[in-house]
Amino acid sequence: MTFGNGCHLHLIDGSAFIFRAYHALPPLTRKSDGLPVGAVAGFANMIFKYIEDAKGTDAPTHAAVIFDHSSKTFRNDIYPAYKANRPELPEDLRPQFPLTREATRAFNLACIEVKDYEADDIIATLARQAREAGGRVTIISSDKDLMQLVGGGVEMLDAMKGLRIGPDEVAEKFGVGPDRVVDVQALAGDSVDNVPGAPGIGIKTAALLINEYGDLDSLLARADEIRQPKRRQVLLDNADLIRISKRLVTLDANTPLEFGLDDLEVKDPDPAALMDFLSQMEFRTLTRRVAEKFGTAVPAPIEAAAPTAAGTPEAPAASATLPFRPDDYTCIRDAQTLTRWLDQARARGWVAVDTETTSLDEMQADLVGVSLCIEPGRAAYIPLGHKAGGDDLFGSSSLAPGQMPMDQALALLKPVLEDDSILKIGQNMKYDFKIFARHSIRVAPIDDTMLLSYAMHAGLHGHGMDHLSDRYLNHSPIPIKSLLGGGKAAITFDRVPVDEAVKYAAEDADVTLRLWHLFKPQLAHARVTTVYETMERPLVPVLADMEMAGVRIDPTALARMSNAFAQKMAGLEAEIAALAGQPFNVGSPKQLGEILFDTMGVPGGQKGKTGAYATGAEVLEDVAALEDHPKAAELAARVLDWRQISKLKSTYTDALQSHQNPETGRVHTSYVISGAATGRLSSTDPNLQNIPVRSDEGRRIREAFVAGPGMTLVSLDYSQIELRILAHVADIPELKEAFRKGIDIHAMTASEMFNVPLDQMTPDIRRQAKAINFGVIYGISGFGLARNLRIPRADAQGFIDRYFERFPGIRRYMDDTVAFAKDNGFVQTIFGRKIHTPEINAKGPGAGFAKRAAINAPIQGAAADIIRRAMVRMPAAIADLPAKMLLQVHDELIFEVETGAADALTAIARRVMEGAANPVVHLSVPLVVDAGRGASWAEAH
User: pTM of this prediction?
Assistant: First the structure.
């Protein structure tokens, strides 16, 4: 067919398909020879889906898959640093590139690449030729660099999302039409491709300038007319780089091609050739689907090669598809059987381990049994503490028959659990580590499937075992509730009959080992090996030791505070009743809403589904700012005070007393490693990280955390660490210089923004600058800042606008980060931690939150990485001191040390914390740690 009017050309961005396939799917190797083929499998499935979806009334008449020939092109002659910052290809992806070309040809699609040119240049050339011949073009890609081609019969299609991209969508993304995209890109640059652009100018600013001056050449010619001094100077100083950037981002629509459009006519695949390729790749599922499509027989499978060496994890597919058979699990009741299993673990070099106990509180739980698994499907349970009487809560306290003596079993387990040559694999291994530690067994070395998942999948889903099993093994484990029951009738695990316990407990170890086989090989593929090996895995014993050490509290002080809080609440209740003109239950949102919006006539009240008015903190803060309803404003402010005191009383001064361990006399919090996608730790039972410090009452609670006799508490706290990281990653010269000189960063920001000399700074102006400094890290809006500062929204937005004008690098960082998240589905910290952003392309109310989270994640995540790195190094650094690390509260570490060694501890701990980024990242700003000490946490902080 001669290409012309009525013809429709599809141009598929082959590289985009490859990388999407590689990052979306778990690693897969060909069983016959171990060749990595995961990306090829994904690519082939995507091509097959494309062929099926492309049929119909708008089917292409011509199509081609376009690839990059190599990483070096003519652009490197123009600018040698072009794309020089891109990481090397993963080792398991490199050999798959030629196979994707074979897959393309097997599907009988034109496969095109040209030396010295990028795939985008080839696409630009073919699109031009097709348009000139009178045809239509659909570019199947979401690559922003191709958007300059849209219009005049050319559109783009994001096949993954089913979204078509025309001139309107391009204008929405770039702020200009397709014909001016290269001008905007030249100004904004591209950190991913190392296109320099104009420092400090992002996409939005670039679009404003191009729309005002018409095009890039006119802008540069008239740069001296620009009113903003910094912006004017940036353009004047970087004009040559900007022109080079335009050459880099402009696609070459005259790439030399050795074929014509007629050669790209769509043809049906040759079934024999396609089946032969799929069979060689050993893609059984796709082979079967294609065979059904063409009505041909499925070729006989190629036999897998023999296993290479003992200790090589089996292919993930094998362990993932092997059926679970709970009835086949072993119950180990004697030393001879246990010894045999442990010998097999020694021979393997690994064993999955799990414990069953009577409680989730590791410091008080009794050990009931231990599970082992040495290969998928082969698991065992060692019952140790099951009581006679079955599930009768009031049954005998004597042990059920057929169990090993606990001392004997632990004596046999201890050498294996402490053997450095045997890897112990667990799910949430910190729990089991502490259970064994209470029995004088220090488990090492370990792997943790929860943390493997967290390192790779943070932000995508939870990391609990049941969820991971459902998602990755397609298996729903036996629910614990089916054994323990629920509510008041629930029993503890020691009351579960042994035969039932075996199936449940051994399955946990079996699931854990299968997840390990699946996840561990994926670390390198996901490029998070360093994150897992240097921050996640080694943190487990560090946190376990901190949790077991606990922190001493003074229950008498807490009781006094509870009484004082009760009296203050009563006083506030009287004030509130007087303002309302009647008494009511301050703790009732329904009654409060009626008082404010019905009785007192405050406008804007909104009722929920229950018919009650919303009276959350944000609503009350808005009411408290109303100038024309002074009584209601005062009442709302007093209710906020009452709620804060009430929470302090119930959550801390009352509850902390009940959390005191009767054996140790201390409070033992538990840290959650995988709770926050950014890497921040959280603490539970009790939560010691959310004790308010902005109010006098909140700070008083820290007085109840005290040092033991002869001991001192030492607090070391990173100073403004997130602002320092922002200055580094966004490359803000003014902030970096201020941090280097030790200048008050908030006063400096206020001086920059409001043109107030430092010696004339007022506390109010500094407070506003501080709110913006910290707010901008979290992507605060004008509305949010207005609420925080209790100022008009227009004033707040004006502050933010001036902030970005003073520090344009921050806006550029934000724009680049959001763009990276949209293109890749994740953001990264400077230490390589990945935080996935699945909602980043969402529309509607959640879109703003997703963007703010993406902007903040690399900053907050880097701060979390730094303190993690410090914590991992700390035990060895202070090993010779009479000191223990007790608590981590965001950017603060708290130690208990013999009073005479406080100076030595402070010096060593500060050195570790201030050098925690090295040698992975050399920050361009210093890390500064503030230190304090005292008999209580309040004194130390």
Answer: 0.66
